[in-house]
Each structure stands twice: as structure tokens, then as C-alpha cells.
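User: Quick one: structure for sequence A, then sequence B.

Assistant: Sequence A:
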Amino acid sequence: MTASDVQADPAGRARGAFDARLGISRRPRSSLVFGGLGLLSVASVLVAAALGSAPIALRDEVLILLHTLGPLDMARSWSEADEAILLQLRLPRVLGAYLVGAALGGAGALMQGVFRNPLADPYVLGSSAGAGLGAVVAMSLSMRGAFLGFGPVPLFAFLGALGAVLLVYSLARVGWRTPTTHLLLAGVAVGSFLGSLMSLVILLGPAVEARLRSVFAWLLGGIALSGWTELRVLAPALVVGLVAAWALARPLDALALGEAEASGLGVPVERAKLAVIVVAALLTGLAVSISGLVGFVGLVVPHAVRLVIGPAHRKLLPASALGGGAFLVLVDLLGRTVIAPNEIPVGLTTALLGGPFFLVLLRRRRRYEL
């Protein structure tokens, strides 16, 4: 586009001024960042799928994958046991961890964008308490059956997370507006109330002592997949959710200037906020349905990525998804190998690693602002 084209295009001039005010620059290093995140994603999945109680040689792993996915009929140089372990047990879990991390990373970037606060995370609107309550109800009722390959616990956790966010949104709405302050306050109140209900259901349910261990394990987080059935449903849904999140990049950039200025730029503020909240809730609900409550991924990863790639959500959202996926795969690998054959729940590992890491980021950010 030439200079005369820009002068003749008021919308182009508005976008240029808008990007300049946000500090959005078209830095050439963004391609390097995405290339690095892509390589890290592939490498983390391959390494995590190869390591475990029965390690598989990386060469054999690649050959198995090429034999399974490729059209070539390759001569077998690996054992059937390694193939079964890789394809039926380890790879579904690793890919599930990647999808959960990507969903939480994308949801965290959405929440931080709509609230204009890097301390926001996917659970800020009470979805964690709603998911916990749903899971505990399903466990207490000893429900059986499955829907699309998912048992009652992940289904109730998904519905609980989504229901909690919708309840918060309805409570925070004032006329035709939904102030972000009201959303935060309603999220705290609903989260506290649903958390209390969850404790009450645990205490009043049958066989409290026997059921408490399973409830506690779910709350600590863990990638619970029995094979490829859940992934066949979860993967397309998460991809659609992440694409929808990326489509909201421009409204989120406008909201970063403030709601009044975003409205002046022609952004339907209330509809944009509702769309962001719904997409973030769906991503979070899908993630917790197979992972339990995994914290810090949606808080730390978008914050760290923003420091590297900048605040433009067109780049921030996909980078947060790639970074979140690789981060959770590596954390899950650490949790299941560091004290093998015992395993540290992935939610506990993310808290142990993410807490100090976030404090370091916060301190560096404060020093930079001073």
C-alpha cells in the first residue's frame, strides 16, 4: 500500500494510529517466535511420548509414526510392545496435555485482554469452582454411562464450568451493559459460593473417606484419557474454539484502549465482551473436562508471551496457545518422570513451577515500569 493509498483510506489511518497507541509493531522477530514455538511444540510432544517407565528410542518412535500415518509400508524394526505403548497409551495422553495447555493459554489471553489485566486467568469468572462442583456431584452420585466417549465426571465438569460463567455474566449485567468490575466481583462471589457447595456435597455424600481421595486427585489436575475416543471429539472442538478466539483479536485490541475509545472505533463493545467470555468459557470447560483443575498455565504463559511478542492479539492468541501446549506437555512429562514410578499431579506441578516463575516475571515487569 502506497502513501497515497493510506491518505485516501481513513480506516487505514485509524488502524495505524490505533496500532501505534497500543505499541503494536510489525516486528520481524515474530516469525522467529512462531517458528521457535512450533519447533518446541513438535519436540516436546516427541520427547514426552518417548520417555516414561518404558522408554522408546526416538528413532523407533519416528518410524512408528511414519509407519502409522504414512503411505509407505516400512519394514518393522521396533517391537509390538513399543508400538502399543506409544499409540494406545502415551501419545493420546501427550496430545491431550498439549490440547489442554493450548486451550488454557488461549483462554488466559482472552481473559487478560477483556479485563485489561495480566493477572487475569481462565478461572477468574468462577469456572474452576463450577467445574469442581460438577465433578464432585457426578462422583457423589456414582453415575455411570458415557456420552461421545466421555464419562459423567468430565461431562458434569464441563457443564459446571460453563454454567458458572454464564451465571456470573447474568449477575454482573446492568441493563444493557456488563461492567468488567461487576464481572470480577460476581466471579469472586459465585466462585466462593460454588466452592462452599462443593465442600458441602463432599461432606454429605456417601462414603466420604473413600470418595475424598478421588475428588482430591481430580482437583489437583491430571490428564485423564483412556485412548483416542475423547481426543476425536475434543480436538476439533478446541481447534474451532481457538480459531474463534483468533477472530476476536481486533475487538480485543480495541478494548485495550478502553471501552469508550473502542466504541468510538466502531467496535460493539458489549457483544465483543460477551463473545470473548463465551469462547474463553468453552475453551476452559473443554480443558477441565479431561484435565481437572490445572492452574497457572493460562496466567503465566500469555503474560510471558506478551513480553516477547507484544500486545497485539492477532499474534498473542496463537502464540499463547502454542506456548501453553508445549509448556503443559513438558510439565506433565516432568511430573510423571521425576519421582517415577510415582507421579506428581500436573496441576500441582504447574503450581510449583508457575508460582515462582510468575513472581519473577512480575518483578521484572515492575523494574521495567520503574
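Sequence B:
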Amino acid sequence: MIVRLLAAADPAGRKARFAEVLAPAAAERVAAADTVLVLCDDAGTISEAAQRVLQGVGATAEIGRAGAFIVAASRPQLEAALRASEAEEGVAIRRLLEAFDRAARVPRALRLRDRVLALDGEARVMGIVNVTPDSFYDRAAGLDDVVARARAIAADGGALVDVGGQSYAHWNPRIAAGEERDRVVPAVEAIRAAGIDLAISIDTFKATVADAALAAGADVINDCSGLSDEALPEVVARHDAGLVVMHLKGELNVRDPAGYRYADALREIVEFLYERTERAVAAGVRRDAIVVDPGLEFGKEPATDLEILERFGELRALGYPILFASSRKSFIGRIFGRPAKELLVPSLATAAIGIAAGARLVRVHDVAETVQLARMLAAIRPEARAGLAIADRMPGTPQTGNSPALPAV
């Protein structure tokens, strides 16, 4: 049973979302529910008995086509349903309650070998350093440049550096593991030798490359293939490292728009990530070392990428920290008709959407700007506002003799 959070809060959005799986009257009832959080089970494992229990405590619960089950409920209603249920329906209702809690809870920390990365404040920024000569944007020119870029990422407030040695663009060929290893391992060694205090992520899907990079001092493997190499999770587990599991439809370095069709994109993405993260845990990767990524642009066309942005919060029910990665990607360039170098503003806009919907890590080319964005979004939280150090005036503002400065707060 895989439970998803369906985050459409407005009635029109809910009605449109569920029209394909619910009868019109049922879709109307879900749209009219006075609760915001909507949960969905797509596996057909919730019975009519469970539906009656939920309805009996005031929740809106509807069984739709193909086994879909949709419930709009508050946490007290789910608790009441659990108390009122028998053993069989109680199992399903407990899973709904667990998904509710996962969706509402912000992961507090991410364990990366001997590092613990706090996630309960502002979203953390991962700066990109590409060491491949055919990357689509902003490539490092030698190891000195790698170190300089990593040092700049740290100075700008980044928490991680993501080193990539293989371009996944469809116009670039796949390179051998040995060549990729020879690109990324020296970069890891150089960053470590420079004493730069960043967690190092390696953007690879190959187990042999991951093994060598982790042995050299990397902390995280960012796998854009969704564990296509079955040996990769065991390598990550053996090094006690972190793992980013990304959704991919199709293959890396291959573009097949005709194959990028989704009946329900978020349903497919959540099911994929659930299965792959469970596979990683079974191989020994710690749950508190796993991050999920919906894979914007990977096996998607722009319409699907925009749908993911709209429904990004549905990923929270998986219970893992979410990585958001849209920086200067071509789906944004195709929407605006602009090259990658002109996409800073829309990239920041998408990052704001992702962070507001629950992303705790953001992978970007523009670290300083994104750190400011993340800090601004974090500052609006009540607990953050109370502890802010506020300057008496904005730097650069003239101070006249008859206008005394305000006292610092």
C-alpha cells in the first residue's frame, strides 16, 4: 500500500484532480471537504469497511476507479477512525495516519558518513561543479578551478558541492566508467586536500565510480538513474554514505519524447521512488541517509515538469528529504525561449516553489542567490522571526543628523 499526499487545497483544483478516478458526485464531495490535506491510496487495499469507519468520524472518503481511494481528513479524524476500526481496516487507516505525519514533518537532519546536515532551518544549497568538457553550462577548467569553485560555494553559504563527470544530455555520448572515475576522483581529492568544509556529492549512477569517489572522500552519491546499477546501493551502504535517488523515465543520454507519457505523473514518480528507496534500505543504506528527487526534465516534457512543480508537495508523504534540481534546465529555457545563461530569475522562481512545497536541498549553479532565497523563505517562519538579528537600517541608506538610527532589535 503506497499512500500519497494530494496537495491540491482549493476546491476547483481538487475536483479537477480527481475527476478521472472518481464519479462526479464523489469528486464534488472531495472538492467540498472542509479539510485541506487529502490522502490517496492507489493500490486498492482499502476496503469499504474502512471507508465506512472514516465517514463515520466525519472524514470524506471515496472509492474510485481502478482501486483508487481518496480521503480528505484531519489528523484527529484519522485518530478517531483508528480507534473505531477493527484489525483489518485499522491497518490501512494506520498507514494513512503515518503518511499524514510524514507529510507534515520536516526531516530534521541528513546523515552523510560522519557528517550530519541539519535540515530543520533553511533549505540547504548544493552547488554544481562540472568536470566534464561537454556539460551544457558552466564547466570547471582544471583542478585549481574546481578548488576555487568549491571554496566559493562554501563562502556563499552552500552546504554541499555536487561534482559531475558525465553529461546526461542526449547529444553527448555515454563515457566509460574509467574515464568518469579519472575525472571525479582527482576533483574529490583536491577539494579534500584544500580543507574546504563542504559535503561532497558525486553525480554518478555507476557503482565502480561511486566506490572510487567515496574511497577518495566523497560523502554522497547523487544517482540520476534511479539505481539502474543494482550494485550501487551496496557500495553506498558499505561506505555508510548518503544517497540521492532520482526518478527517471527511460534512459540517461537518450531523448524519447514519445515515451514520456504519464497517466498520473506524481503517482508514477512516488511509486518509483518508494520502490527504489526500499531497495536501497534492503541493501543496507540508512533511511536517514536517503534523499529523493522527482527528476525534473529527466524523462519528462515541460508540461510534466510544470505539473511536478504544481504538485511537488505530494512527495512529502515518502518521508525523505527532497532534493530540488531545476537550475537553468532546458525545460525553463524552452518555456521562455532563452539560453541557459539567461535563466537565473526563472530558476530562482522554481526553487522558491520547491522550497515552499517542502524541498530541503536545492541543487544549483547560482549558490549565493539561492542561499539568499532560502534564507528569506526561512525567515518568515514564526520560530525564525523571533531570533532574527535586525540591523538598525539598511546598509547604504543615508543617515541624516535629525534622523537618529533606530535601536537594534
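The chain has a mean pLDDT of 89. The chain is about 40% helix and 15% strand.

User: Thanks, that's what I needed.
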